[in-house]
Amino acid sequence: MRLISSNNEKKLNWLFLAGGPGLGSESLANLVELLTLPGNLWYLDLPGDGSNNSDQWDFSNWQQGLIEATQQVDNVILVAHSSGGMFALATAGLEANLTGLVLMDSAPHTGWQQYFIEYVEKHPLPGIAPLQQRYQESPSNDLLKELTIACLPYFSKAESREKMEAMLKTLSFNHKSHLWSESNFDQTYEAKWVPQAIPTLIFAGEQDNLTPLKLFSESVDFQRDNILIREIAAASHYPWFDNPEQIKQVFAEFCQTMAFE
């Protein structure tokens, strides 16, 4: 955990957890810079995420790392993107460590993969198949970065693509974490819990082709008074690049539900 900023408005601790896996929390820097939130803001990297790749840790310890991180400080609001949100929902008992939860462009089960596969089949990109084959045969951090950037049209809008590519080029990637998740998590993922009491915000871009909001909005389990579900207009899988004003609005709306002083 790394402290980003702090103020004394409220004793809240916002932990920003990236997707990936194998992608560092710096991938959320544009979001963090956009928001004005009460309390302390932290970057959270699971073992093996991005540059957090000490030989003493590997991604198989992700659940232990998530539980320990949410116990280090009080009044935790976990802000998790994509697979980060899936790891949160796959951790039974995590709600007891949280004061609030924000799930951004995530999913409650592995069904998102079929949705994405169908989209890719209908919208093939030239050069992706041989690049993916190279990665599978000789995986490396550099190849994972190259593959991710090549796939940008699948999870970004044309208007935001240049900014997103510039952001991705600065980041550390960890292919070992990516491959571990691909083999041990992605195919079997199912949410182990639904927030019962804590204020929760769930949002996704209207044009998210990876993890569409309907996976939550059409789930009866997530229709609860403590859960806000919001669609970000004209936005993709990283909606703060596409519609920053609405992102600020939904976070402000969520903050109004927080009763903690």
From TrEMBL:
One of its GO terms (molecular function) is transferase activity. Residues 30-247 form the AB hydrolase-1 domain. Keywords: Transferase. InterPro entries: AB_hydrolase_1, AB_hydrolase_fold, AB_hydrolase_sf. GO terms for cellular component: membrane. Gene3D superfamilies: alpha/beta hydrolase. It holds the Pfam family Abhydrolase_6. PANTHER family: HYDROLASE, PUTATIVE (AFU_ORTHOLOGUE AFUA_2G14860)-RELATED, MONOACYLGLYCEROL LIPASE. This is Acetoin dehydrogenase E2 subunit dihydrolipoyllysine-residue acetyltransferase. It comes from Legionella massiliensis. The lineage of its organism: Bacteria, Pseudomonadati, Pseudomonadota, Gammaproteobacteria, Legionellales.
